[in-house]
Amino acid sequence: MAKMFRISRRKFLIAFGGGSASLLASLFVLSRFGALDRVIAGIVTAGRPSTNKEILITGQRLPIPELEAGEMIGGQRVFDLRIQRGSMAFVTGKQTPTFGYNGEMLGPTLVMDKGDDVVLNVTNNLGEPTITHWHGLHLPAVMDGGPHQRIEDGETWRANFTILNEPATYWYHPHLDGKTADHVYHGLSGLFIIKDEVTDNLGLPQQYGIDDIPLIVQDKFFNEDGSLNYPGTSEGVKGDTILVNGAITPVLEVPAQVVQFRLLAASNARIHNFGFSDNRQFYQIGTDGGLLETPVPLTRLLLSTGERAEILVDFGADENREIKLRSYSSERENIDAIWAKDLLDISDFDVMTIRVAAATQDAVTRLPGSLATIARFDESQADTTRTFKLQMSSFRINRESMDMNRIDETVKLDDVEIWEVTNSSEMSHPFHIHDIQFLILTKNGSQPPNNERGWKDVVLVKPGETVRIIAQFSDFADPDTPFMYHCHILEHEDGGMMGQFVVV
Ligand SMILES: [Cu+2]
Predict the structure, then answer these.
(1) Which terminus of the chain faces fewer neighbouring Cβ atoms within 10 Å, N or C?
(2) CA of 492 to the centre of ligand 1 (A)
């Protein structure tokens, strides 16, 4: 896998490292016509898979994952998840082998209340070992579903914990060391929605599937025989075909009123820059781990793999109109060096078509004023500051590749810590920490943008950037079972850009 990374880099150097006068002259001409990026991206993506777009089934109605509230048994909310192989229709006349939870692909949206005592029985019928991680949840390390909690084929793992997190959108996905990227790519991902009475009474759109819509955005390559093509490229697999909730660039009908989208960037590697085709303003109300203090107006939303955002969009004046949800990737700045970009990275492209129909009877028509109070830490409260250097050569953090038998950091229970994460590589890395929700203090010394001033469990660290975050490690100490921190580009994680910490 590391080999492909070197090849693409070498191709780039061969093509553009020569420095001959004629080459430079033609580059100058190309750059004047804005085509240089496209040429270079074309060169570095040559030899990688591409999908014959004519064979794809697109424009289907957006599937909405089934809402699953579990079953109340003896005061516990019990969910059963079966990891299984399935089959989907993405290519005309063909079937695509997929992986899913309780279905062909993706999984049910698990809904629960803050404070619930939750049991998740996860049965592995995949034919190979896997595990399921509860991304963003604050829980005992043995219940986290990290690489140390493996489920052998045919076995069931029972996870049991109390929901302590704030109301927000979380997700679940495999986390087996070295296999996470492959398992997620083939379809294993699902959402959690945590609710509580306070949030239920804010007047937010919350009719699931009607005005409260989950959007799991991914990208994949398809072979002509219908199968998924997973090239395993070590710098990160960015597919050339965009899927939402397991359908290729689908169509969603929304009522002409305020609608909530729960966005999950669940690609293996792609970093999106969402916006709408009419450049309308929308409002971010939630981050990974809770509501923001007030709605934040945006026209673009940068979302890297693993991150979630709840946004409100007012379609009140749009009945009978058609609007596209798009990713304006060409507008992103300082995301990846050109050798790591694919054609979509330098393009603006459709993610989903939105058709606006009549409003519902009990339509939400106004935005809420204030949403939540965030108890911020003061930097002076920090007991410790740790530094993490992200390096792409051999995929390391602080010069070490992931080792299941090495504990990298030991954190004292209840300590408040500042983690300073520096990216000295040429690609952006979404940095994820298990167990906790954190607040971003600074990005390269500046305050984070308003829409990132809420609880987070993934933060994008761009090339040359240092991001400082602050968090408290409370409730769950276990000297024997570590939590993970890692890059959420899944091929980087599998490649070794992951470390382990224990709370004692
Ligand atoms: Cu990374």
Answers:
(1) C
(2) 5
Q: How far is the CA of 388 from the centre of ligand 1 (A)?
A: 13
Q: What is the pLDDT of residue 256?
A: 98
pLDDT value at residue 10: 35
> 17 lies in which domain range?
2-47
The answer to whether residue 402 is domain-embedded is: yes
Q: Is residue 164 part of a domain?
A: yes
Confidence at residue 4, expressed as pLDDT on a 0 to 100 scale: 38
Q: Residue 45: pLDDT band by 50, 70, 90 thresholds?
A: low
Give the Cα separation of 55 and 225 in Å (integer). Answer: 10
Does a structural domain hold residue 279?
no
HSE value, Cβ hemisphere, 13 Å, CA-based, for 15: 18
Q: What does the pLDDT look like over 482-504, one tens digit per residue?
A: 999 999 999 999 999 999 999 99
Taking the C-alpha atoms of residue 490 and residue 504, their distance in angstroms, rounded to an integer, is: 28
Same domain, 396 and 468: yes
* pLDDT of 18 above 50: no
Cα 141 to the center of its chain, rounded Å? 21
List helix spans (H) across 102-222: 180-185, 197-200
User: How remote is the CA of residue 37 from the centroid of ligand 1, in Å?
Assistant: 22
What is the distance in A from the centroid of ligand 1 to the CA of 497? 7
Find the 466 Cα to ligand 1 centroid distance in Å: 14
Confidence of residue 17 (pLDDT cuts 50, 70, 90): very low
CA of 281 relative to ligand 1 center, distance in Å: 30
Domain count, the chain: 3
**Distance separating alpha carbons of residues 490 and 220, to the nearest angstrom:** 14
Query: How much distance in Å is there from the Cα of 302 to the middle of ligand 1?
Result: 16
Q: How far is the CA of 2 from the centre of ligand 1 (A)?
A: 14
User: Please, are residues 97 and 87 in contact by the beta-carbon 8 Å criterion?
Assistant: yes
- 393 plus 486 within the same structural domain: yes
Mean pLDDT value of segment 427-445: 98
**Taking residues 284-293, what's their average pLDDT?**
98
The answer to whether residues 81 and 175 belong to one domain is yes
Ligand 1 centre to CA of 491 (Å) is: 8
Q: Are 41 and 89 within one domain? A: no
pLDDT tens digits along 103-153: 999 999 999 999 999 999 999 999 999 999 999 999 999 999 999 999 999
